[in-house]
């Protein structure tokens, strides 16, 4: 991977932030609405990353049930989640310092997430991260979600950056497949929410510390 890049594109959940506590609370409130017992954070972690609809569907499937009509249940989940999406959610250690460093080095920063756009903007603002990003593309901003490369291509188009000038940073197979499909090199964090061991995802590089991205991306 060419180490020095012009733009860095970040996934959100499990990459920039540890959002699992608030996601767990909202999912369990949604399950309780339907008379179902709660799930643990360990059960919910591998359900994260494919969008809110899939998260809700997987939560019901964990109880051996098909989800009720997805749209009404999704709205229940969002009602529980969006007003409280940053109650317990925090950036991973080293995130703010690393983003400051990369921006000071002249990189353009962006977010590409399957998370609903409204919740994404609210979380970034609440955590004081929103000012770092020139472009934020959420799960309802484009017709295709990761692992479809169209999601990353939409970010590149808005940034005005060629794929060879960018790098994707994520934590899951969706991030790797989307980046590979868009011909963008990809770095995976070893401490996110991946359902697959990080070193088996096929990333160009796996890092164990967010601060390592300073050296990897900006030299």
Automatic annotation (TrEMBL):
Pfam families: HAD_2 (PF13419). Its cofactor is Mg(2+). Keywords: Carbohydrate metabolism, Hydrolase, Magnesium, Metal-binding. Specifically catalyzes the dephosphorylation of 2-phosphoglycolate. Is involved in the dissimilation of the intracellular 2-phosphoglycolate formed during the DNA repair of 3'-phosphoglycolate ends, a major class of DNA lesions induced by oxidative stress. It comes from the Bacteria. Mg(2+) binds at residues 11, 13, 171. GO terms for molecular function: phosphoglycolate phosphatase activity. Pathway: Organic acid metabolism; glycolate biosynthesis; glycolate from 2-phosphoglycolate: step 1/1. Its EC number is 3.1.3.18. This is Phosphoglycolate phosphatase. It catalyses: 2-phosphoglycolate + H2O = glycolate + phosphate. It comes from Magnetospirillum sulfuroxidans.
């Amino acid at each position: 991977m060419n180490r020095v890049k012009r733009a860095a594109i970040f996934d959100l959940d499990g990459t920039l932030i540890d959002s699992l506590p608030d996601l767990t609370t909202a999912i369990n409130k949604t399950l309780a609405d339907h008379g179902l017992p709660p799930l643990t954070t360990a059960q919910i972690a591998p359900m994260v990353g494919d969008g809110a609809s899939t998260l809700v569907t997987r939560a019901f499937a964990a109880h051996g049930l098909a989800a009720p009509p997805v749209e009404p249940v999704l709205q229940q989940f969002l009602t529980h989640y969006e007003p409280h999406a940053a109650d317990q959610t925090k950036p991973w250690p080293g995130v703010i310092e690393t983003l400051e460093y990369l921006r000071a080095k002249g990189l353009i920063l962006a977010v590409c997430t399957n998370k609903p756009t409204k919740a994404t903007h609210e979380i970034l603002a609440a955590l004081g991260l929103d000012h770092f990003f020139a472009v934020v593309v959420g799960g309802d901003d484009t017709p295709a979600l990761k692992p479809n490369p169209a999601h990353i291509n939409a970010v590149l188009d808005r940034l005005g950056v060629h794929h060879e000038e960018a790098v994707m940073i994520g934590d899951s197979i969706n991030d790797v497949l989307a980046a590979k499909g868009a011909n963008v090199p990809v770095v995976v964090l070893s401490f996110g929410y991946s359902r697959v061991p990080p070193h088996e995802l096929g990333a160009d590089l796996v890092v164990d510390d967010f601060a390592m991205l300073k050296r990897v991306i900006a030299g």
